[in-house]
Fold this sequence. Notes:
Blueprint: E1 2-3, E2 13-16, E3 55-60, E4 67-70, E5 75-81, E6 87-94, H1 102-106, E7 111-114, E8 117-119, H2 124-128, H3 132-138, E9 144-150, H4 153-159, H5 165-173, E10 179-185, E11 188-196, H6 217-223, H7 225-236, H8 240-261, H9 263-273
Parallel strand pairs: 2-6
Antiparallel strand pairs: 1-10, 3-4, 3-9, 5-6, 7-8, 9-11, 10-11
Bound molecules: iron/sulfur cluster (SF4) (2 copies).
One iron/sulfur cluster binds next to α2.
Amino acid sequence: MNTQATQSKNHCTVNFSASECSDGMCCFTCVIPPDNGHIGFFRSFWKRGTGSPHVKLLVTSEGYKDELYDSCKFLDFVISRDIANSKLNMDLRCSIYKNRPRQCRDYPDRAGESMYYKISGPCIFNEYAAPASYKKLVYKRDWQAFYAIRDSAEAIGNIVVHENTPVAREMLLNAQDVRRAAISTGKEEWDFILIPIPRQTSKILYVSDKHMPISTIRQAYHTWEEKIEKNLQNHYGSEWETRLKQALEMEENDACKRCDENPTDNLERRFKTGLCQ
Ligand code: SF4
Ligand code: SF4
């Protein structure tokens, strides 16, 4: 990826809109097979969303190759300015929400590689917003995600509502932490506008009791043991249990250090969580 000069003038921030689950990350990565086969026969009757083919999900992490994901064809990607003009609201929505396929309805409580083998796990945004120690253990790396919007009048015109296209482009490029980058997609290279995805959990729909925010490795492992074990076995082979044990010990030592720095504030939490015994 060739990141050109950052053009941010800190004019406004780009946030998720004030509705639940407005990040739509699972509609790029987890739920959909590459050919959108989950939609089946009905796909010819439905109107495509505004996201595909204009927006991609870019994942970067130090020392690893960048990863680029396409969105589901039915994902709507909308950016609008708030009334005070102080921020841009991003909203990613399913354009066929009421008729979305079973695997989208079930996600993330029931997900898996095949119809017959489904296990529950934290959703992809939950893992993105999780503490770095969780990602380093379960993914072997910390990672940053961006929405990458094609820098073209057609893409911007489709995505930014109620604005004329050149104004919308200027507005996007001047927003905080937004930058341009040339990204190679196979044989061709295109210019994209990169919006860092905020780890903003307050607007996320944790769709069930099983789908709670990840706060620690221990809590996540307790909730999604099977899924996490599978990841660890893939990454570490027969050493996975040792790695898990080491990570849990480190997490508990860190929590104890924090308790010692703020003994009064954290006394109650230490007893509640059973740490530092
Ligand atoms: S919070 Fe999770 S379930 Fe909701 S849209 Fe994001 S990735 Fe999907
Ligand atoms: S059908 Fe809707 S919910 Fe399912 S992946 Fe596509 S946009 Fe997301």
